[in-house]
Structures are given as structure tokens and as C-alpha cells.
Specification:
Number of strands: 8
CATH superfamily: Flavodoxin domain
Shape: globular
CATH architecture: 3-Layer(aba) Sandwich
Number of helices: 7
Family: Belongs to the SsuE family.
Oligomer: single chain
Structural class: alpha/beta
Radius of gyration: 17 Å
EC number: 1.5.1.39
Distance between the termini: 19 Å
CATH topology: Rossmann fold
InterPro entries: Flavoprotein-like_sf, FMN_Rdtase-like_dom, FMN_Rdtase_MsuE-like, NAD(P)H-dep_FMN_reductase
Order of helices and strands: EHEHHEHEHEEEEHH
Keywords: Flavoprotein, FMN, Oxidoreductase
Pfam family, one: FMN_red
Length: about 190
């Protein structure tokens, strides 16, 4: 059986980052519920490999691998800091390189961090239309966190943890067989190692 391919993308361009921590928290919850390991692409680290190219055919091996990981994901978690009322340019550039048909029908959990509660509107006014273009399934519950929701870059708010759990529950409704497959795989591996 094949693992569920879970990819988290943090659109931040500096580290440490609250956005990266938020995406990591969502990934951990998915991993816990589905029994599959996820991959976290932090653009603070990966953006230079992507910025070396304006088109996908100009990417080097490292950049191509990043784009292919996004395109082949079964589930995406996409987060960005709110910057000038939108998502980061680094995140935009990554999705400029993703094939327009590659994400059709794939579930996406949207997340963002910002300075005021009003910045949370960016998810619905900017991120949702982006994934609508790709015909991806942006889940209804998004996760938006303020600076006050963190303690030393770690998610500290019980309300944010609750939203993360709600989004992952929606994912389970969209991909109900994934958890069953993961549990069966774990039982099979346990029997083989015994």
C-alpha cells in the first residue's frame, strides 16, 4: 500500500517563522490522524532554488523536485504570512511553476498568519481563488493565527488548535479511506516485524 502524500508549504521568506510553525502544526495533526508522514517545504529555505528560474523548463534538479513534490501530493497544507493584503511573492512564484492541471480535485488546507484579525480575510480573498484556478478542493475551515496565538514561534492558542482539528476532520471526510489504509498498513508492518 502507498502512503498518503502530504505536503505542507510555508510561504514565509524568513526564519524562524510563525507561518512555518503553523503549517508544521497542521502537518503533525494530519500525520497523527492519518498515520502518514508529511513533507514540509519551507520557502525560507527552498525559494532560492525556485527563484533561479522564471519557467518550469529552466529549473535545476532541486527546483524541479520541489515542484514535482507539490504536483504529486495527495493533500496540501498551504500557509503564508499576510503581506500587503495577499500571500507572499515566494508562494506565488512556486505556484506559477506548478502545472495548471496538477492539483485538480486535491484537498488543500489553507492557513495564514497576520498582524490583525482583518488580515484573515486574505485567505478567502486571495488563497481560495488561487486554488479555485487549480480546481483544487480548498477545505471550508481555514486556519488564521495572530502573533498573540504563538509562544516563541510555537502555536499556543487552544482556539487555533481547535481550528486545526476541525480542518483535519474535514480532510478525513474528503479522504475517508486514507486513514483505513494507513491503519491496515501499520498492522501489516507490525505483523511482518513480529
Amino acid at each position: 500500500m502507498q502512503d498518503l502524500r502530504i505536503v505542507g508549504i510555508s510561504g514565509n521568506v524568513k526564519a524562524p517563522s510563525r507561518t512555518s510553525s503553523l503549517v508544521a502544526a497542521v502537518l503533525r495533526q494530519i500525520e497523527s490522524r492519518f498515520g502518514s508522514s508529511g513533507r514540509h517545504i519551507d520557502l525560507a529555505v527552498s525559494a532560492p532554488a525556485l527563484f533561479r528560474a522564471l519557467r518550469v523548463d529552466q529549473l535545476d534538479e532541486e527546483g524541479t523536485e520541489i515542484v514535482r513534490a507539490v504536483e504529486s501530493a495527495d493533500v496540501l497544507v498551504v500557509g503564508s504570512p499576510v503581506y500587503r493584503a495577499s500571500y507572499s511573492g515566494a508562494l506565488k512564484h512556486l505556484f506559477d511553476l506548478v502545472h495548471y492541471e496538477a492539483l485538480a480535485g486535491k484537498p488543500v488546507i489553507l492557513a495564514a498568519t497576520g498582524g490583525t484579525p482583518l488580515h484573515g480575510l486574505m485567505i478567502d480573498h486571495q488563497l481560495r481563488p488561487l486554488f479555485s484556478f487549480f480546481k483544487a478542493l480548498a477545505l471550508p475551515t481555514s486556519v488564521y493565527a495572530l502573533e498573540s496565538d504563538f509562544n516563541s514561534y510555537a502555536v499556543a492558542s487552544s482556539d487555533i488548535q481547535k481550528r486545526i482539528r476541525a480542518a483535519v476532520h474535514e480532510l478525513e471526510l474528503i479522504v475517508p479511506h486514507a486513514r483505513t489504509l494507513a491503519l491496515a498498513r501499520a498492522e501489516e508492518q507490525s505483523r511482518l516485524s513480529a
